# Entry
Amino acid sequence: MLRGSPPLLAALAALLTSVSCSEILDFLQRLPPPTPGLPCPKGPTDLQALWSTSVYDKGNRPLGLEQPVGSWPPTDVSVTFIPFSLGAFDTRTQLMTVDVQIVMIWWDPRIAFNASCASELAPPDVFGTQIPGSWMPSIFDDPYAAGLWMPRFAIDNLFPGPSGFYSRSNMLRVESSGLVWYNFRASVDVKCSMDFSKMPWDAQRCPIRMMALEGVNRVNLSLVTDPRVDEQIFQAQETLDAMSSVEWKCQKLTQEAGSYHGSFGRTYDEDRAFIELKIMLQRNDRYWRIHVIIPTILLLAISWASFFIARAAVPARVAMCALPPTPLGARLHPVILFTPRSIICYLTLTNLAGSVNASIPKVSYNVALIDFIQFSRWCVFYSIIEYTLANVLMRIEARIEAAAVKVAKQEAAREEAIRGSMDVPPGTVVELDEVQINRDADPTCSGLTRRRVKSTGVLSQAASSSVLKKRNGFAVREHLRGIDRHLVNSTGYPAIRDQHLDIFSRYAYPFVCTIGIVILNT
# Structure
């Protein structure tokens, strides 16, 4: 950390706070006594004539206080930022616009003057307190344009260059001892490295970095460390509110001084001092909760509700859609009207993900809100696949039933034929048995079977109905092709039914989605 001259820091602290600082009086008393024959200007115009180019070289730095002639140590410059308001905060381009006031103070003994001839003195009035000293009225120009030396600086993270810096309201004050106080307001566009991994609960830390263009062996930038400056400027609620926006709330304002030696990965031919204003902004997540998170959860609930609708009620499942808003009386396109509700939910989530992606750069790391929407899309995608599989199983079950009916008709026809040949009374169930034909008795019918009546009997109505439900799984399988044959069990019924898939999804869907959302948000 760089340290400035204590008298200068005390002076700037007194200039910026409403509490009078006795150290500035000590500083003024420690100044060398006025040299006999000092110029005695009457006003700002006469004062500016004193540092004309014939007697004053604004290219040379002033000597510091209590420094021997012939030495040329660094010039101490005390600096502070006074933030006024937060302008644009563009997360897409990672740019921030801030309106700040920059205050600089240094001592230049070459412009000391005798204030006894002044027709008017105008001590600065800060926060209702008049600053001691013999101050000339303000000069509304920057020191260099007025003919004075001033520290050269630049906003290091300025973007996109000089067009991102607009200064105004220059004000220059000079005290009779040579104390120079210069402040101006500026609108600054700075580049800010943002982290969106916790969006929409993210916090961004964006600095405004003021860098001296000369090495630390010539210009020494220092901060005002007086706690009253922090209390009345950086910790004031009015300042924090002014540095907030609708979406972002300013949580903290801090300043830091340092040098570029080993900082920010920069390499210069010399070490340079910098002053940094750090702005911490916390995102207001209310918009994202109301317009993104809650609608996403509702879309998941809509997809889950489809599992409770009968599989055969295809129009009901199709009509369960999240229709987009349309003008009153407008006709909906048939494609939209008859699109399954899960597909509409999926497309809606895709639009939500697109709106979130449009507000941030194309980052390669995980973003909490996008991961949440992406996981929800997978859940809705499962409901679409489940809807498809349920319909496939319904069609397979229909083909199995058709094959079972065909087998039942063949068995019934065969039974009727046997009854007719044996004169079996109606209502009698006939059990058929298969016997092997003797090869020796009939060589032409080797390996063939024939049916014979094993037993007959009269069954009750209940027993008759139970027998009718019995199926020959092998016979049913012979009437099927492809995957249908593998989905029939030995009893002649489907091994996996569409209702099994729906029942499983009713319980697994909310459990898996809830667990996934909790994991993504921890």
Q: What stands out?
A: The chain has two domains: 6-284, 286-421+457-522. Residues 286-421+457-522 form a domain with the Methane Monooxygenase Hydroxylase; Chain G, domain 1 fold (CATH 1.20.58.390). The first strand starts at residue 75 and ends at 90. The chain is about 35% helix and 25% strand.
